[in-house]
Amino acid sequence: MIDDINGEKNDALTAYLDRATRSGLLYSKIMTIGCILGGILYCSFGFILSNKDGSRRMIYDTWAPFDQQQTPFFELTCAFHIFVTGVCLFFHLATNNLCIQTLMFSVSLFNVLIERLSMIFENVERLYEVRQSSSAGKIRQRQLEADIDNGLRNLISSHIDVMIFLNRAAENLSYVLGTDFVCFTIILCTQMFTASLLDSFSQQMSIASLSGFSLTSTFLWNYHAELIRSKNESFCCRLYDVRWELADRKIQKAIQMMIARSQQPLGLSILLILPIGMDRVVQMMSTAYTYFTLLRTVYD
After folding, report:
1. How many CB atoms lie within 10 A of CB 98?
2. Residue 263: per-residue pLDDT
């Protein structure tokens, strides 16, 4: 499909793909920088701050069979904590980047479909005017009919490609999204619980920076998943809103077939059961807050 779009040399179509590429690169840079800064802020207080009793603070409160306050055990333990934090942030960043890049690309493909549909029915309206005009020649009519046939074949082929692409993406990312859903809920809950126990504002801000990064990335890929469903519905509505009554019977049947295909819900889902979207973000935050209040009640 991408080769077909580039081969057509249509600036309107290639602009959608270029915009998706630039947006994806910009997002990747911003989230990578945010991930690095959030991880540094989260891990830094283990070295620069101390507890009220004068003991050095660990990044995570863990048990060990040795005295973690003694050198070099303290430095080795903090290095291990930094390594674990870095690995978790890396996989979280990679997962979210993959999801968002996939969804951004899918949004651009739907824009291409809508643009192609508009181009087809511009030619349909011209063909209708040519047929109504007695002065128009047969050559112009045949040219418009050929353009409509080629555009319709490209539209149907592109629509099938988009549906196959999203269905395969949903299958491949299903379990990854399920893991990320569980991990994000647990991380958000534990970070809120940890922040509620700390008495230092700087420590609370370091945890808030990392939580803000995780929440922002999760919000973005759920937002784009919601946008995919909206684009699919917009394409279906656009198919019906165009002046299909002016078209030939063959085009009307093709439009009817694509409207029927557009009824299939498209987008990513968790374990192929729960579709992701803005309601899923609310559910994750609600679940995390529920377990946070439970932990606080048990702790108090």
Report:
1. 15
2. 75
Q: How far is CA 169 from CA 142, 164, 172, in A?
A: 40, 8, 5
Domain that holds residue 218: 2-299
Q: What share of the chain is helix, strand, coil (3-state, %, to 5)?
A: 80, 0, 15
**Cβ burial 254-284 (10 Å sphere, 16+ → b, else e):** bbeebbebbeeebbbbbeeeebbbeebbeeb
Closest CA to 42 of 214, 179, 181, 183: 214
Number of separate domains in the chain: 1
Whole-Å CA distances, 213 to 9, 34, 93 = 39, 6, 10
Rounded Cα–Cα distance for residues 88 and 84 (Å): 6
pTM here is 0.72
Residues 75-130: tens digit of each pLDDT: 787 778 778 777 777 777 777 777 778 778 888 888 888 888 888 778 777 777 77
CA dihedral 23, 25, 27, 33 (to 10 degrees): -150
> For the chain, where are the E strands, in sequence order?
269-270, 274-275
Cα 199 to the chain's mean position, in Å?
36
Q: State the DSSP code for 57.
A: P
Q: How far is CA 43 from the centre of its chain?
A: 28
The alpha carbon of residue 176 and the mean position of all alpha carbons in its chain are separated, in whole angstroms, by 13
User: Are 270 and 177 a contacting pair, CB within 8 Å?
Assistant: yes
Closest alpha carbon to 258 in 113, 52, 62 = 113
Q: Tell me which amino acid residue 235 is.
A: F
Q: What is the 3-state secondary structure (H, E, C) of 267-280?
A: CCEECCCEECCHHH
156 by Cβ neighbours in 10 Å (0-12 / 13-18 / 19+) ranks as: middle
Q: What contacts 29, CB < 8 A, 6 or more positions away? A: none
